[in-house]
Amino acid sequence: MKCQKCAKAATLHITEVISEEQFEELHLCEECAHKYLYEPNKIGSPKGGESGSLVESDEPSLLNRECPVCGIKFVEFRNTGRLGCPHDYQEFREELTPLLENIHGEIKHCGKSPRRLPQTKQAQSELTQLRKQLLQAVNKEAYEEAASIRDRIRQLEEA
Q1: Which residues, other chains included, contact 101 with Cβ-Cβ below 8 Å and sequence gap of 6+?
Q2: Which of 2, 8, 10, 145 could potentially form a cystine with 27 if both were Cys, beta carbons 3.0 to 4.6 Å apart?
Q3: Which residues fall within 8 angstroms of residue 131, CB to CB, at 6 or more apart?
Q4: Of 126, 130, 110, which Cα lies nearest the Cα of 118?
């Protein structure tokens, strides 16, 4: 994670309690943390002024915004660190994008994906239909037909 004041790696994570429901998290390198903690007049005043205006004007509406699907409020996410459903990523996109980029260095998943994951929607729907046909063939005890359907499923999963 990068320092919020400069480009160095953040080694100190400070959480300031503004009020009962409002918190401010700072991720700072050792130098910036030292300035922040021990020289509050130089760093604290301008930052405090900016932060105060943000908290008073922008954040109450932001913190009370909620996901229409699961009902989680942004303030709940900030307090727990957990989202309620996949739709929250879209609902809180503007706030999550810089956070994810700061934490992970990217906003797009570039890791592994399941080996058997269908590549297209068409392949996915075909796999679903084939699996239903396979169950029907097994229930009818049409094992030769089931074997050919099984082979087709394996072929689609490997592609």
Answers
A1: 107
A2: 10
A3: 153
A4: 126
